Amino acid sequence: xxxxxxxxxxxxxxxxxxxxxxxxxxxxxxxxxxxxxxxxxxxxxxxxxxxxxxxxxxxxxxxxxxxxxxxxxxxxxxxxxxxxxxxxxxxxxxxxxxxxxxxxxxxxxxxxxxxxxxxxxxxxxxxxxxxxxxxxxxxxxxxxxxxxxxxxxxxxxxxxxxxxxxxxxxxxxxxxxxxxxxxxxxxxxxxxxxxxxxxxxxxxxxxxxxxxxxxxxxxxxxxxxxxxxxxxxxxxxxxxxxxxxxxxxxxxxxxxxxxxxxxxxxxxxxxxxxxxxxxx
Length: 280
Hints:
alpha/beta, 10 helices
C-alpha cells in the first residue's frame, strides 16, 4: 500500500488502481494530436475525464511519440499557459505535467501542477531532479531508450527487465541525491519508448518484477503501436486492445494506469482490482 501526497490530494495506491487521464496540447501526438489545441476544448475534455473517474490529469505540451521533433521550453510553457492555471482551479483533482525540462517543470509547479511526469527519468536535463526537489512534488520516472526522435531505431538490451530496473533505480538515486524523498517516486517501464513488440509484451508479462524497486508502478499502454501491430488496427480502433493490456498490467502489479479513455478504463480497472483483491 502506497500513499501519495499529490498537491492537496492524497491518493491511496493499493486499495484500487489510480487512473491518469491524458490531455495532449500538441498538434502531433500519435492519437489525439490537434484535438485539444483550443483552450476551451482542452478544458472541456479535462473536466469530462475528471467526471469519468480520473484521479489525475497529465498534461503534455510536447509530443514524445517515436520520431517526434522536440519543441523549446518556451513553446511548451506557452501551450500550458492557457490551460494549466484554469484547470487547477476548475477540476477537483490533481494535475500532472508531462515534461523532461526543468524550466517547464518549475513553471508548471509554480502555476498549480501537483506532479511531474519525466519520460527520461531525470536523464535529459541535469537540473530536473533539483527543480522537483524544491517543490517536494511526486515525480514519475520513466525508462526510455535515447531520445524520442531516434528511440525506435533498433533498440537493444542485454536483459530487458534487468536493464529497465537498473535504469529506474539509478533515476531514483539521482532524485535522492538531489533531496527528493523516497516516498515521492513512481516508476514507469516506458512501454513503446525504445521498445519492440516483443519488448512491450515482456514488460507486460513480467511487470511484477518492478515491485523490487519498492515504489508504485505506472504503466501507459493506451492505444500504442504494439496494440496496433497485434490487432492490425489504427490508433482510433485500439480501445479493446488497450483494455486487455490495462487489465493484464493491473493483475501483474500496476498501481496506476495512464490512459486516453478514462471512463472505459476505469471500468476495466474495477474488474481487475476485484480479481486482484480476491487473490490476496
